[in-house]
Write a structure and sequence with these properties.
The protein is α+β, with helices and mostly antiparallel strands. It contains 9 helices and 4 strands. The chain has 2 domains: 62 residues, Alpha-Beta Plaits; 121 residues, Arc Repressor Mutant, subunit A. It has a 4-stranded antiparallel β-sheet, sandwiched between helices. Strand 2 and strand 3 form a beta hairpin. Helix 3 packs across helix 5, helix 3 runs parallel beside helix 6 and helix 6 crosses helix 8.
């Protein structure tokens, strides 16, 4: 039995969900971003208890097919941004390879529910990652641009200013108080 969990965005989220499953005595095969593969089916009371416990730490079980699809898209994009984006990355191909649905259908559902396109969401995720890397001051802007799949630091700077209203240099000078949690982008 597969369950879909909203707001899982990092390895710590996976560990937290694993701990909750263990605490409740729920047996599972695997836990990955947004998805839990159980070894056996849960009854309604067990599902309700799991959902309540997950909500206590900011997660939520998803039952609506559209919500599941959107969460799957978000998790794939967050994962991709966190690991880095190769130069000739195709967003459409990546989603099609992992979701096995027509991109236009996925895109339409995503836009209707989220109010922004998949591409806009992906850009916002990349900008949040750029903010994180700028705050840590571990690499120059040109390396950040390369890591995030931009053709140049000027391209990154242009999108950064469009999204945040400031340049990367201005952001860096103001500090890390302007960052958003990844699941709130």
């Amino acid at each position: 039995m597969k369950l879909f969990v909203k707001n899982m965005v990092c390895p710590r989220c996976i560990m937290s969900v694993e701990n909750i499953l263990t605490e409740l005595g729920v047996k599972y095969r695997s836990v990955k971003l947004g998805e839990v593969d159980l070894t056996e089916k849960l009854n309604k009371e067990e599902i309700r208890a799991l959902d309540n416990r997950l909500k206590q730490v900011g997660f939520e079980l998803l039952s609506d097919p559209s919500a599941k699809l959107i969460e799957q898209v978000k998790n794939l994009l967050i994962e991709k941004v966190q690991e880095g984006i190769e130069n000739h990355f195709s967003l459409q191909k990546h989603l099609k390879d992992h979701i096995f649905k027509d991109y236009s259908t996925v895109s339409k559902v995503f836009s209707q529910v989220e109010g922004i396109t998949i591409e806009q969401y992906f850009i916002r995720q990349k900008i949040e990652k750029a903010k994180e890397l700028l705050v840590y001051n571990e690499m120059p802007l040109s390396d950040i641009a390369f890591f995030l799949g931009y053709s140049s630091s000027q391209h990154l700077s242009g999108q950064f200013k469009q999204i945040t209203g400031m340049t990367p240099t201005q952001f860096k000078a103001m500090g890390h108080g302007l960052r958003k949690p990844i699941d709130k982008v």
